[in-house]
Amino acid sequence: MRRQVCVGALALSFLLSLAALPAAAKSVNGLRAQVPFDFHVGGRLVRACAYTVSSMTDDEQLIRIGGADDGASTTTNSGRENNQGEGRARLVFHRYGDQFYLAAVWGADGTGRTLSESKRERSLRKELSAARGVAVEAEVVTIDAR
Fold first, then answer.
1. Which of 1, 45, 111, 113 is deepest in the core (most CB within 10 A)?
2. pLDDT bracket for residue 143 (50, 70, 90)
């Protein structure tokens, strides 16, 4: 049985620099989600853990996704989008086999932050497409947040 631990180097926090937002926007601040699988953010692999999204600035130019006992951080470019009709807080991942990549963070207000595709994800998709002889698209996996 695999033990899920979120300590030290395994529990990393992530700072996401965002596109310009109005000062009143607080769509993702305070979200919490239990992610049951290891996943990539940018060039980093992080472990399954409970994560919290926090706004680091009033205008949400910078948000932090962190696990328990975290101590490290990384910066990733992302942009703001409107998601019409969903209206639920969630983390969105791209899945290729057993590898997951954080793709977006959505607030209950229908706005969210999409992350730029990492070089690692892009490379994996191209490699899989070449091996299969057809274009490979990621499976979208959603984890609800509260």
1. 113
2. very high
DSSP at 138: P
- Measured between alpha carbons, how far apart are the two ends of the chain, in Å? 27
Phi and psi torsions of 129, nearest 5°: -65, -45
Residue 125, H or E segment? helix 119-132
Q: What is the pLDDT of residue 23?
A: 33
Q: What does the block give as tokens for 15?
A: 């700072």
φ and ψ at residue 7, rounded to 5 degrees: -135, 165
What separation in angstroms does the CA of 79 have from each of 17, 42, 82?
8, 14, 10
- Give pLDDT tens digits for 41-82: 877 888 888 888 777 766 555 667 787 655 334 344 556 666
According to the 3-state scheme, what is the secondary structure of 57-85?
CCCCCEEEEEECCCCCCCEEEEEEEECCC
Measured in whole angstroms, the distance separating CA 109 from the mean position of its chain's CA atoms is 17
Domain boundaries, the chain: 8-144
Round to whole Å and give the CA distance between 60 and 86.
21
